[in-house]
Amino acid sequence: NFEYDTVTVQQQNAERLEMTPSGASPSESQWELVQRFAEFNRAYEQQEEKPRYPFGIVYYLDDVRQGNYVEQYYFTKARRSTPPAHLHIKPAGKYAVLAHMGTEKSHIQALARMLEHISEASMIIKSDVYVYDMMSYVMQESGDCYSLKYMILVE
Questions:
Q1: Are 33 and 104 spatial neighbours (Cβ–Cβ below 8 Å)?
Q2: Can you say how many angstroms the Cα of residue 133 is from the centroid of all Cα atoms in its chain?
Q3: pLDDT tens-digit series, residues 52-71
Q4: What share of residues in the chain are helix, strand, coil (percent, to 5)?
Q5: Residues whose CB is less than 8 angstroms from the CB of residue 144 and which lie 6 or more positions away in sequence, other chains included
Q6: Would you say 118 and 75 are in contact if contact means Cβ atoms under 8 Å apart?
Q7: Which of 19, 47, 136, 154 has the smallest number of Cβ neighbours within 10 A?
Q8: pTM, full prediction
């Protein structure tokens, strides 16, 4: 229910997320990052639970501005059993939202354009970058094209 490659501003409710540090480093390849995410999902299976939508990753804003797209956290919808140390409340508010389908390179370009759009619209960024729908990495046949939704709290 969204248009690709168009930045919109949407009011979002607060969201309870279970955040898990990824342990990723800037030197890892895209394939290594995909494997890390698969391991994250396997950990839920071992607990006989499934990660609940929404799921995705968090990039630190400062990293993105420096051209480093390091997955700092994986997230899934919080459960009742989510340990307090892993509970994160994504605040309610206005979010700049961008959906993009493409390659790793085109995603980097799309996120850069999103940040430019936010700046040109004189909005102030108030959060890191929430990246939704990492399962598209696992589910795409070709593996080089995937769909993600980027969300950044703005004011």
A1: no
A2: 7
A3: 678 888 999 999 999 888 88
A4: 30, 35, 35
A5: 103, 104
A6: no
A7: 47
A8: 0.84
